[in-house]
Design goal:
The protein is mostly beta strands. It is about 10% helix and about 45% strand. It has one helix and nine strands, in the order αβββββββββ. Strands 1, 2, 5, 8 and 9 form a five-stranded mixed beta sheet that branches. Strands 4-3-6-7 form a four-stranded antiparallel beta sheet, with no helix packed on it. The protein is elongated, with a radius of gyration of 20 Å.
Length: about 140
């Protein structure tokens, strides 16, 4: 009787634990990053073309964490995928050349492009909005 009670308590405790955001699930987030070339970064009219952003670093933050939890690179077609995620909130981000009118000279390639994404089901595939980054030829 004591053994059955102990097993039942352990099972209830195991099932009642909320899993934290991050690795260990069956869901995924995937998306695409394109690179827009501009002669003058602050002027969209000087666009010369848009191409897949190959080998672009993409970062993910799990839940309420403040630092990146993982980093991957896009493939040759600008595509990325974070796999084996649990249901929770995530932040996906990458960096672009700064298109603001007042670029910080020492950090001109680090304008952050951020998306917040929520996974609500255990086996969900979430497609993130397409991201466009900017660069001068």
């Amino acid at each position: 009787m004591k053994k059955s009670f102990g097993i039942m308590v352990a099972l209830v405790a195991l099932l009642s634990c909320k899993k934290e955001a991050g690795d260990g699930g069956n869901s995924s987030i995937h998306g695409t990053i394109n690179k827009e070339m501009r002669i003058v970064l602050t002027n969209p009219a000087t666009k010369t073309g848009t191409f897949p952003a190959a080998d672009q670093d993409v970062f993910i933050i799990y839940g309420d964490n403040i630092s990146p939890d993982d980093r991957i690179q896009t493939n040759y077609d600008g595509e990325y995928e974070f796999m084996f995620l649990r249901p929770d909130k995530y932040k996906i981000y990458t960096f672009s050349a700064d298109t603001n009118s007042v670029a910080i000279s020492w950090d001109e390639d680090h304008m952050t492009i951020l998306q917040e994404i929520e996974i609500t089901d255990k086996k969900q595939e979430v497609e993130a909005e397409e991201i466009t980054i900017y660069e001068q030829p």
